[in-house]
Structure formats: structure tokens, C-alpha cells
Amino acid sequence: MEVNGYKIEPHANLTGANLPYANLTGANLSDAQLEKANLTDANLTNANLTNANLRGANLRGANLINANLTRANMEGTMLMGANLEGADLTGAALGSSTMNGANLTQANLTGADLRGANLTGADLRNANLSNADLRGANLTAAIMTGANFSGCDITGATLTQAIMPDGTMYQ
Prior knowledge:
Layout: E1 2-3, E2 6-7
Antiparallel strand pairs: 1-2
């Protein structure tokens, strides 16, 4: 598959690629290099991004429904308003990522590294965050009803006005 002159395939080198609004539905970008790529409002529904390097990429408003991001490096990634419903982020590195208002309902974040991530207003309903590292993360006003936080480290996390897994609001 080719999009905007870029070859979309496993192991592709798309460092700094400019792919806003690209339709990458079901694309196989496993092990791809997408560091600092512009994927603003791109459609990555059901895409395979296993082990992909998305460090510093811009995924604002991107659609990543049911995407496979297992072990992806997404440190410092911009995911404001992105839709990651049902996405598999098992073991993903999301440290210092900006995920304000992101939809992570039913996402699998087992063992994910979210240290210092900004999840202000994110929707984490029924997400699996077991054994995730949320040290120093900002979860202000995040909705976490029904989320699994077993074994999760939230040391130093900001939880102001967050809706906790049991439905109560953290003061």
C-alpha cells in the first residue's frame, strides 16, 4: 500500500512522514519507524503497530480503534482527543505522552509505562491498566469507571476530580 508517496509496510521508515488525515485502516506497520511523524486525524482503525517507534509523533484526533500497539514506543507522543477504544497497548512505552481527552475505553494497557503522561480528561472506562506504571501521571478529571488498576503504581499521580473505578469522585 502507498499513501501520499509513502510505502506502508512492516519495517517501513516513515520518520518525520507527513500523513495527516491518511486512511491507514488495517495497515501493517509492525516494527515501523514513525518517530516524529504527523498522523493528525489519521484513520488507523485495526492497524498493526506492534513494536513500532512512534516517539514524538503527532496523533492528535487520530482514530486508533482496535489498533495493535503492543510494545510500541510512544514516548512523548501527542494523542490529544485520539480514539484508542479497544486498542491493545500491552507493554507500550507512553511516558510523557499527552493524552488529554483521549478515548481509551476498553483499551488494554497491561504493563504499559505511563510515567509522567498527561491523561487529563481521558476516558479510561473499563480499561485494563493492570501492572501499568502511572507514577507522576496527571489523571485530573479522568473517567476510570470499571477500570482494572490491579498491581498498578500510581505513586505521585494527580487524581483531582477523577472518577475512580468504583464510580466515586476523587477529591
